[in-house]
Amino acid sequence: MLAELERVNKVLDILFERYVHECFTDEPFRVLVSTILSQRTTDANTHAATKRLLSEYPSAHELAMADVAHVEELIRAAGMFRIKARRLIEVAHILVSEYGGKVPDSEEGLLSLPGVGRKTANCVLAYGFGRDVIAVDTHVHRISNRLGIVHSSTPEQTEGQLMERVQRRYWRCYNIVFVRFGQTICRPTRPRCGVCPVESMCPSSTHH
Question: Residue 105, class by beta-carbon neighbours within 10 Å (0-12 exposed, 13-18 middle, 19+ buried)?
C-alpha cells in the first residue's frame, strides 16, 4: 500500500511540475458561466463564447435582463447555444433573486442551480473561491483510471477515491493538470505513450 501511494505521489509530482505552475482563481461568476458553456465543446470555443458574452453582460444582474436571441448569437461558438442561452439567463435570474446577484459559495447552493452538476460546482468552488476540491470531468475520470490511481466506473466514484488516495495539496489543480495532460499526451485513443513523462509508472502503457 505504501509503495502504491509513493507511486501515485511520484506520478502527480511529475505531472504537476510539467503542466501547472500556479493554480489560478478567477471571478466566480465568470467561472460559472465559462463552465456551463464548456459542456460538450472545446476549450477554444468556450473561451471565445465566454469572452463575447461577458463583454456585454459582465454580471448576473445584466445577464438576467438580456435578450435570449442576442445571448444565443454571442455564445454560438460554444454549441448547443439555444439550450445554454436559456440556462444561463435562468441561472442569472436565480442569482439575482436568491443570492443578491452573487454566486453561492457552497456546494449545496451551486447544485441547486439549473444545469449545475458536481463538476461545475467543484470548478466554481476551486477556481472561483479557491477551495480544495477535485473537479472530475471526462479527462480526470479516464486518466485517473488509466494510471491506476483509482479503479472506478463513474465520475462520482472517481471523486471519492481521489479524495481518499490523493494528498490534499493536489486537489484544486488536479483538473487543470489532467485536462492538459489528456489533451496533449494521454488522449482517449492513440495515447502518446512514447513521449509520456510517467510512462514507466503507468500500468496501461502500450510501451511496456
Answer: middle
Domain range 2-22+135-201, CATH class: mainly alpha
Every domain range in the chain assigned CATH 1.10.340.30 = 28-127
Q: Which three cell numbers stand for residue 34?
A: 465559462
Write out the binding residues. 186, 193, 196, 202
Question: Please, which residues have CB within 8 angstroms of residue 131's CB and are 6 or more apart in sequence?
Answer: 125, 172
Domain spanning 28-127, CATH class: mainly alpha
Binding-site annotation: residue ranges for [4Fe-4S] cluster: 186, 193, 196, 202
Grid coordinates of 115: 444545469
Distances (CA, A) of 72 to 36, 45, 96, 187: 14, 14, 21, 31
pLDDT per residue over 92-122, tens digit each?
A: 999 999 999 999 999 999 999 999 999 999 9
Residue matched to cell numbers 456551463: 36
Q: How many residues does the chain have?
A: 208
Q: What's this model's pTM, rounded to 2 decimal places? A: 0.91
Other residues' Cβ atoms within 10 Å of the Cβ of residue 120: 22
